Amino acid sequence: MSGNKEEEDPRINGIKTKIRVVPDFPKKGIMFQDITTVLLDPKAFKDTIDLFVERYRDKNISVVAGIEARGFLFGPPIALAIGAKFVPLRKPKKLPGETIFEEYELEYGNDRLEMHVGAVEAGDRALVVDDLIATGGTLCAAINLLERVGAEVVECACVIELPELQGRQRLKGKPLCMLVEYR
Amino acid sequence: MQSIVSSHHLCFAPPPPPPVLGHRLICHSLPSIRLPSHRSPTSLRLFSCAAESEMAAAAKEDGQDLRIPKIASSIRVIPDFPKPGIMFQDITTLLLDTEAFKDTIDIFVERYKGKGISVVAGVEARGFIFGPPIALAIGAKFVPMRKPKKLPGKVISEEYSLEYGTDKIEMHVGAVEPGERAIIIDDLIATGGTLAAAIRLLERVGVKIVECACVIELPELNGREKLGEAPLFILVTSDAA
């Protein structure tokens, strides 16, 4: 998947062609990677999930953490297929009850990611899922949250990577698995 | 059992009788359980021993899906969230219970597979957790219905009322086509405002709403009435406050 070109799984090209690029969204200069068009193609969506499930099913993953909101589209199907619990990582004030938070930087200012206390236990082996990795700020916050409660983050999994933004370097040494690069 | 309920309900869609705990569930009622809301200050378990034994009794009745009491008991109620007086139905604890989550999806999939449903629409954000697994299993596309300004490109939007003011949900232009058959998924139906807006959005582009499906209903808020012709299928009912 994220490795050699020669070994690229034939399903990947089918997924790549379904991703829609929307120029100047949310603002001028940004080429937005829209995965909703992948979700409209049952085969492409199934292939996306299958590729991740095949990779993780024998890795003893007990937690799939998905980042709001597009991580919620891919995380739960993976979690269900590999028998892991699904833990939503959310914007502030969405999760009821006791939460812990991790701050991360935006282009202008900061934001926060929250997780429920008690959702993840020390010793849990975790996968972090989002649709895309850009700067890696959100994923790094997710890794921090999970590590703070004693979980081991095994890998981060994203459908798309924007390699020029070097997000891969911000994952505290954790490996990244992605299906499609956009340069 | 489950399939008999499914086909009857989808064809004729009469408003079902309110499910009552402890009563025999008859063939054309919803396979749901009404549970008392329960203050659960520290633990993640929702229900008291009394409620659990009532559920066990109901589970032995003919026609009762044994998975449903377990699903119901995996839901956590958080008092006074997001504001005092509201008993918030927290499904995140259901997602932590791998069997309960799988059972939840399986029940919906068994109901909707093979019914010519080509669209599963899910309302942001908790509808995104339940909708895609159902869509994948029945071979339908998944269409996210989102808060304003989240979807890139061309969208259509529908306004709906809140307690104070209004909000909007949006859907991509071209995501669905006239004549498609859809189900709409959310974790919970309260007043029905969001679901009603989702129905209007899809109907505006010529889609037929086969059913709305939620894990939880708060029947005292009468959300069902806002859904017009669209039937509602739920697994668990609970008191609002």
Automatic annotation (TrEMBL), chain A:
One of its GO terms (molecular function) is adenine phosphoribosyltransferase activity. Pfam families: Pribosyltran. Its EC number is 2.4.2.7. GO terms for cellular component: cytosol. It catalyses: AMP + diphosphate = 5-phospho-alpha-D-ribose 1-diphosphate + adenine. Pathway: Purine metabolism; AMP biosynthesis via salvage pathway; AMP from adenine: step 1/1. It is found in: Cytoplasm. It comes from the Eukaryota. The keyword Nucleotide-binding does not apply. GO terms for biological process: adenine salvage; purine ribonucleoside salvage. It is an enzyme of class 2 (transferase). PANTHER family: ADENINE PHOSPHORIBOSYLTRANSFERASE, PHOSPHORIBOSYLTRANSFERASE DOMAIN-CONTAINING PROTEIN. This is adenine phosphoribosyltransferase.
UniProtKB/TrEMBL annotation, chain B:
It is an enzyme of class 2 (transferase). GO terms for cellular component: cytosol. Residues 111-220 form the Phosphoribosyltransferase domain. This is adenine phosphoribosyltransferase. HAMAP family: Aden_phosphoribosyltr (MF_00004). Its EC number is 2.4.2.7. Gene3D superfamilies: 3.40.50.2020. Belongs to the purine/pyrimidine phosphoribosyltransferase family. It comes from the Eukaryota. Homodimer. InterPro entries: Ade_phspho_trans, Adenine_PRTase, PRTase-like, PRTase_dom. The keyword Glycosyltransferase applies. The keyword Cytoplasm applies. One of its GO terms (biological process) is adenine salvage. Its main location: cytoplasm. Pathway: Purine metabolism; AMP biosynthesis via salvage pathway; AMP from adenine: step 1/1. GO terms for molecular function: adenine phosphoribosyltransferase activity. It is found in: Cytoplasm.
